[in-house]
């Protein structure tokens, strides 16, 4: 059974709503601040390998960046392709899990992006058998190894994830947000014994009062664990990124010197 208790229609609705909400969760200045930091690093080409609904890849493309998109979800790939077609943008698009990027994407890049707190969701949409500490960490290491291989010499990986207090909450908490068409209500619970962070999201339509529910499980990691994965893959140094991020994430640059 999937860890996401939902239908394709529900996923599509959630994708549409999330596409609206993510721009409210991240500061308005985020794409520009990220662009400025990448310019300082002499980056020319970018792969957003956690592309999702297209934020901030679309915004970076509109700034003039040479950017490609990939995501492991067929649904999100379709959503993204429809979005860039509407916007008349030409962005190379690939479908690939992180663990096999080099098998599915034919070139390397100056920079890779794994943003939106995507990394710790690596096994969230797989079956329960894959959601064990050993398997998750093996897949995380394999993914980071692929990130490294997809970079040109002197390339850089941009990656973010929940900060410590948000990743490992001591008490359950709830958050809510609203767009012109939907309301999203999320409850979060962390099981310290299983190291499992469970999120229940209810998406309510403001037009017809319908509701859809989605449950996801994440395996949060500490900053030290992320740095260990990065160093094991071959990255020579890791630094905090000075980007204008969402309040609940920390972001990093990892360098392939």
Spell out the key features of this protein.
8 helices, alpha/beta, globular, disordered N terminus, Rossmann fold, four-stranded antiparallel β-sheet, seven-stranded mixed β-sheet, 257 residues, 11 strands
Short description:
This protein has 257 residues and is of the alpha/beta class.
Outline the structure in words:
The chain has a domain at 22-163 and 220-255: Rossmann fold, CATH 3.40.50. With 257 residues, it is of the alpha/beta class. The strands form two sheets. Strands 3-2-1-4-5-11-10 form a seven-stranded mixed beta sheet. The protein has a four-stranded antiparallel beta sheet with strand order 6-7-8-9, covered by helices on one side. Helix 6 packs across helix 8. 33% of the residues lie in helices and 30% in strands.
Mean pLDDT: 89
| Proportion of beta-strand residues | 25-35%
- CATH topology-level fold name of the domain at 22-163 and 220-255: Rossmann fold
Tell me what the CATH architecture of the domain at 22-163 and 220-255 is. Answer: 3-Layer(aba) Sandwich
Superfamily at the CATH H level of the domain at 22-163 and 220-255? Vaccinia Virus protein VP39
- Uncertain segments of ≥5 residues (pLDDT<50)? 1-6
Structural Rg: 18 Å
What's the total helix number?
8
Sheet with most strands: strand arrangement = 3-2-1-4-5-11-10
Encode the helix/strand succession as letters.
HHEHEHEHEHEHEEEEHEE
Query: Which structural category do the helix and sheet elements fall into?
Result: alpha/beta
CATH class of the domain at 22-163 and 220-255: Alpha Beta
Keywords: Methyltransferase, S-adenosyl-L-methionine, Transferase
Protein name: Methyltransferase domain-containing protein
GO molecular function: glycine binding; glycine N-methyltransferase activity; identical protein binding; S-adenosyl-L-methionine binding
GO biological process, one term: protein homotetramerization
